[in-house]
Amino acid sequence: MLKFDNVCKRYPQTGDVLRGVSFHLQRGEIAFLTGHSGAGKSTLLKLIALMERCNSGEICLDGQKLSHVKNNQIPYLRRKMGFIFQDYKLLHDRTIFENVALPLVIAGYGHQETTRKVRAILDKVGLSGKEHKFPLALSGGEQQRVGIARAVVNKPPIIIADEPTGNLDPELSEEIMHLFEGFQQVGVTVLIASHDIALIERMRHRVLKLEHGQLFAG
Amino acid sequence: MKIRRRRQTQEVKVPKQAKPVRQEFKQNRAAGGSVKDKLVIYRDLHIQAWFCSLLRLGKTPFASAITIAVLAISIALAGSFQLLLINVQQIAGNLETSAQISLFLRENINENRANILADTLRKNPAIESVQVISKEQGRILFKTFGNFGAAIDMLDENPLPVVLEIMPKNTLDDKGQIATMVNTLKQRQEVGYVRMDMEWLQRLKAIMAVARRLFVVLNALLGFAVLFIIGNTIRLELNNRQEEIMITKLVGATNGFIATPFVYTGFWIGFFAGVLAWFIVALLMVSLRIPVEVLSSNYNGNFHLLFLSVGDSIKLIFISALLGMLGSCLVLFNQLKNTNPQ
């Protein structure tokens, strides 16, 4: 599903950030990406999201070589991924419904289908009945669930989460993780960047550890 | 210990048989549905963007009003130039029919001799009509249409000569033919001075050609100003909504999708500026009407101020709305390409 092959990323200012990173995530696999800050976690995620391009090596997503993806094709590729952020990145001037519906509207779904899908996913993340509220009226945990709902509403084959529990207490974090396991059950690949060691150990999933731009264990 | 290949340990939970990815997952380029459904969805999307951009303008009424006012003034200037041209052209049109030649006879020529001359001239096939204006008639005309009436009364003797007003046939469009006629008339011993209205009409036409060219250039400049003002407004709006754009891009939006509401914002700004500009021009016309009527009556003219026709008004608003959309496109394509999620 997601394959890194000897990927290197170098920034002119900071030098090598990723050095020869290789791993392969199967379809329906959950993996944690850990490492100290500055170890290259964010860079790795940016490479997957095509916010950055790698200097050498190859990244394959769902059989598609990312180096072959032209700039104008990036939007279509991103629709295959669901992104979840530490700061949720919700649109504050739009309701929960509109936030979650955004990927569907972009992908060109009709009104009825959008409504149905959004209702279903909000129900799944336990937010039904709150679709007409605005994000700031919700607690952190709820906002993150909105973020998750938005990421998975279009049923992408891979979910990329950047510190999804960074702002949440342990109990909420566990809940969120169980949500991810639920998606895994239906064949979705999940990559979670996190430095919550306790949580990672409790969850007992595959761990990719980055240190100084190199990948250990996994 | 650098691991190049994936190594599965026992702890790692990998479902033995992950369910196959459902077909829906593959639909990443566009959602399913017939072409008709897609068109309906596309139309709805545009209608929504159209209304949303209007609502968004309303959310910042002060900033929107200022932008629209600036644009309206520029557009009103262009509209006024156009209107000025239309009206001056109307005057020129009125004068065109009065391409007459005035023969100022020598002082010693009395009315009888003038009448004989007039009869001779009337036989000329190139001449439509000849009107004799006697010294007395001249004095009366002078008093009616000028402010020198009193000055004339003060003189003992009427200094005005007899004048023959000759209207050439309309078939004499050729400047050369009229010039020949003028030359033959000049050579007559009774004639003191020949004045041809054509000359200043020609000059007026030349001046108008210059004015028209000038207005075209000025209007083009104003059009560019409108384009850039709207472009700049949209650029600021893009900067304000940078975060939203980045999020939308991460969720897979194309530049076209993101650009649509901004293009409509440009449309609305241009549209409202066009409407306001129309009112400004209308106000200008209302304030000019009375002085122009006075001027017109002074010149014995049947000249009335022309206002923008319905067609011209629609054109004005249409062009400004179009400029709004173009102005936003101008900025959007460059700016969105360079706005990438960080």
* Beta-strand content estimate of chain A: 25-35%
Order of helices and strands of chain B: HHEHEHHEHEHHHH
| Structural class assignment of chain A | alpha/beta
Strand ordering within the main sheet of chain B = 2-3-1-4
By helix and strand content of chain B, what is the structural category?
Answer: alpha+beta
Principal-axes geometry of chain A comes out as globular
- Helix percentage range of chain A: 25-40%
Mean pLDDT of chain A: 90
Give the SSE order of chain A as H and E letters: EEEHEEHEHHHEHEHEE
Work out the helicity level of chain B.
Answer: 55-70%
Extended strand count of chain B: 4
Task: Please outline the major beta sheet of chain B.
Answer: 4 strands, antiparallel
The stretches of 5 or more residues of chain A where confidence is low (pLDDT under 50) are none
**Helical stretch count of chain A?**
7
Adjacency order of strands in the biggest sheet of chain A: 6-7-8-3-9-10
Structure description:
The complex is a heterodimer of chains A (218) and B (342). Chain A is 34% helix and 26% strand. Chain A has 218 residues and is of the alpha/beta class. In chain A, the strands form two sheets. Chain A has a six-stranded mixed sheet, sandwiched between helices. In chain A, strands 2-1-4-5 form a four-stranded antiparallel sheet, with helices on one face. In chain A, helix 4 (111-124) crosses helix 5 (140-152). The longest helix of chain A is centred in the C-terminal third of the chain and has 16 residues, at 170-185. Chain A is globular and about 45 Å long. Chain B has two domains: 48-95 and 203-338, no CATH class; 107-189, Alpha-Beta Plaits, CATH 3.30.70. Residues 1-29 of chain B have low confidence and may be disordered. Chains A and B meet through strand 2, helix 2, helix 3 and strand 10 of A and helix 1 and helix 8 of B.
